[in-house]
Amino acid sequence: MEALTEQLNAATMKGKESDLGCKNGLVRMSVNSVDITKDQEITGRERKQLQSGQLPHHTVDSKEVLPCMSPGASSAEDREDNLGFDVQNPESARGRCSEMLAGDSVESTMSHSTSYLSEIMFYERNFISAIMFGIWDNIIGPKILSAWVNEASNFCVSEADLKYVAGRVLSGELGRNTAELQIENKFCVLAERRMIVDAYVFSGLRDETGIHAVTLVMPFRERRSFLGVHDLINCWLQRIVGKLRILLEVECMDDVVKDFSLYIPDFMEMLSSIRLLGLQPKISVKETLLAADQNIEVQFMRRVIASHLQTFGCTVVVGQTPQTVNAMISTLGLFLTQEERQCSRYALNDSSWPYYPNLFVQGLLVERQGEANISTREILCSKYPTTIVDLITSEVRQTQAYHEHILRRNDTLAQEMHCIWAGKLEDEMYPTM
Fold first, then answer.
1. What CA–CA distances, in Å, run from 412 to 263, 315, 379, 418, 429?
2. In degrees, to the nearest 5, what angle opens at C-alpha 299 toward C-alphas 297 and 301?
3. pTM of whole model > 0.85?
4. 141, CA 20 to 30 Å: which among 57, 228, 249, 390?
5. Confidence at residue 426, expressed as pLDDT on a 0 to 100 scale
6. What is the pLDDT of residues 17-39, one digit of tens each?
7. DSSP of 251-306, one letter per residue?
8. What is the bridge-based pairing of β-strands 315-319 and 361-365?
9. How far apart are CA 385 and CA 314, in angstroms?
10. DSSP assignment of 160-188, as one string?
11. Residue 106 and residue 103: Cα distance in Å, rounded?
């Protein structure tokens, strides 16, 4: 052991790495053996001691990692300052390593990610392959807290892909002032992995909560589909992340992940619905109620189109059959741009889809009780005012004008956050229409 200590001192005097396996700023020592590099020379006596296991029992366990000593440290005091313990007292090294690592084995800055919670989702016709929730850790770097993988996607996302994405999204946030960071959207094209990433980086209401990120992982071939609905996704995730920032202040991390997982199904079902029953980029007039062979009430149609334009193209069509509802949706789709048609959907028989905010045109079928599943709170949280067309009673209703709707929307979102902070049920304040 004395000879090994002398070699360690000689190596540090020459400004070289330690012969005890110094690599990437880490020194590894084993219980029953010492890793010997090909350039190291040992005496026959030391080799016999290694083979017979006569080294002292207080050597550091192989799962513990120590900071590498700087080449310029030559004295015992300098070595103690750089390593954080006395090299002549190996027992102090064991305690120091336990404090630093808290029992974790670190092979790299991302080896801890294997302990994150991974859940399986199944949403057909959805271009999102995975959703990831991560945090920047000042000690071990990017850390994945939970991941949701869509097995219905034909693009496989491996654990190595998730680690790579977490590093690309969060590594650039080192030294970021969390007091100035609200919610920042980052879009990345990872050509080497054939994927695109849409991330929302945010901090909590306090600096102690750190920097977090909610990340969507999609295949590169779906970039056009994603860009067409990016504004819709941004509206949904801005609201979800706002709730997440409140949850980080009032709940522990395990409960935050559980509550966050409750917001994912509605978001994924919304994207699946517009992918499954979305409007075509080009709509023929023959497929609408404006065709020559259609018998329509002119005054009712005028009110529908006028209100549809006044609410920026955001209209909900309610009816009893998918045929009548979808015919009205196609008619209103003529007044939408191609991008707005991508954020619209038809009605489907026997579907349980509710009203989804921030869609432009969508169809709903009345339930057995004669009511449609429309939430007042969701209408108030929508980006634009909404027109409601009832094909059963031939009624046309709309929310307040845009400038008044914005004020009501801000108040509704603030009350929604207050309900989460106070632990109240949101639906108690906003009943269903």
1. 18, 20, 10, 10, 10
2. 70
3. no
4. 249
5. 57
6. 333 333 333 333 333 333 333 33
7. S-HHHHHHHHHHHHHHHHHHHHHHHHSBPPSS--GGGSTTSTT----HHHHHHHHH
8. parallel
9. 7
10. HHHHHHHHHHHGGGTT--TTT--EEEEEE
11. 10
Determine contact, residues 372/365, Cβ cutoff 8 Å: yes
CB 123 within 8 A of CB 268: yes
Query: Mean pLDDT across the stretch 262-284?
Result: 92
Q: CB–CB of 29/60 below 8 Å?
A: yes
- What pLDDT, in 10s, does the model give residues 320-349? 899 999 999 999 999 999 999 999 999 988
With beta carbons less than 8 A apart as the criterion, state whether 55 and 49 touch: yes
Per-residue pLDDT at 82: 40
Asked if residue 361 lies in contact with residue 317, where contact means CB atoms within 8 angstroms, the answer is: yes
CA 40/CA 11 separation, integer angstroms:
10
Other CB atoms within 10 A of residue 264 CB: 17
Structure tokens at 389: 């067309």
179-185 own/partner pairs: CB under 8 Å, 24+ apart:
179/203, 179/207, 181/211, 183/238, 183/241, 183/242, 183/245, 185/234
Would you say 185 and 154 are in contact if contact means Cβ atoms under 8 Å apart? Answer: no
Strands, E, within 331-394: which ranges? 361-365, 387-390
**Cβ contact 379:265 at 8 Å:** no
- For 167, the token pair is 């590093």
Q: How many CB atoms lie within 10 A of CB 275?
A: 18
